[in-house]
Amino acid sequence: MSAAKANFLHIEDLYKSYGPKRVLDNVDLSVGEGELCTLVGPSGCGKSTLLRQILGEEFPDAGRVTIEGADVGHPDPRRGIVFQRYSSYPHLSVLDNVVLGRRLQCSPLAWLTRRRQLIEEAMEYLQRVRLAEHADKYPHQLSGGMQQRVAIAQALILRPRVLLMDEPFGALDPDTREQMQLFLLELWERERMTVFFVTHDLEEAVFLGTRILVLSQYYRDRRGEGAGVNRGAKIIADYQLPRAASATDVKRDPVFAELVERIRREGFDPTARRHVDEFNLRHPHSFRTLTAEEAGRN
What residues does each domain of the chain span? Predict the structure, then answer.
């Protein structure tokens, strides 16, 4: 992979605090174009905070976040977002919800001129998410999984360079959640978009990801311990996985289960803290910058 593609999304020396509490602590990450990254970590470690830095909804206290070499800035169409909560307007049809993003980009005159074209475009995206036959329905007439497919179509029609997903399947029942996991894999295989997927479900992360990132505050460095050490989360493990659309029975494979448990031990067990020199950064694009204080240098 070329350097440009490897550094498609690049984060370096990123810090974020809320008041006196440091949440993200010198986070480094380089993501290649077309990767499907899943991000896991203990509750409160800053997964959604990191997502908001990429979206541009918040800005880091220090460090940079870039897409194709340019600072991300405020939210823009380069980044689509799908949240756990449904994003459709209840008084609009499915079709009107999907076309809305494109309509808002137009002046009133441009909308009148391009209305038919944009409706046809919205129907193409509904076809991609297998909802074309439900275009005239309203959100309350759809199942939870169907409403999340509408949300994905709403994001994709703006042609984002990165699709950000924050616990998108967390509110779904187990069967629907598994169906949506397969749907997302099929969509990713077809579109080859760059996806950054936050989840608390380790099984979901291992099943979906071409790359699994473990963000955790449970680690050690040379800053020591105690109340005076304001330590936030870092990416402590970074796995590369082969990706082909999989059947869900892979979740019952012992190798799959062993990886899930290894990630649980590495990132979620406060008694099994690795030193920063021992982070499990296996992905070829992983990198880490340490301050002199963290590394124990004078």
Answer: 3-78+160-295
Distance from C-alpha of 294 to C-alpha of 222, rounded to nearest angstrom: 5
**Structure pTM?**
0.89
In this predicted structure, what is the pLDDT of residue 2? Answer: 46
Q: Domain 3-78+160-295: give its CATH superfamily.
A: P-loop containing nucleotide triphosphate hydrolases (3.40.50.300)
Euclidean distance between CA atoms 124 and 138, whole angstroms: 18
Angstrom CA distances, 86 to 89, 180, 292, stand at 9, 14, 45
CA distance 205 to 193: 17
CB atoms within 10 A of CB 79: 23
Calpha distance 247→22 (Å, rounded): 40
**Backbone phi, then psi, for 163, in 5-degree steps?**
-105, 115
3 pLDDT more than 60: no
pLDDT at 39: 97
Complete edge-to-edge strand list for the sheet that includes strand 211-216: 79-83, 162-166, 194-198, 36-40, 211-216, 234-240, 280-281
Give whichever of 5-14, 19-28, 82-91 has the largest mean pLDDT: 19-28
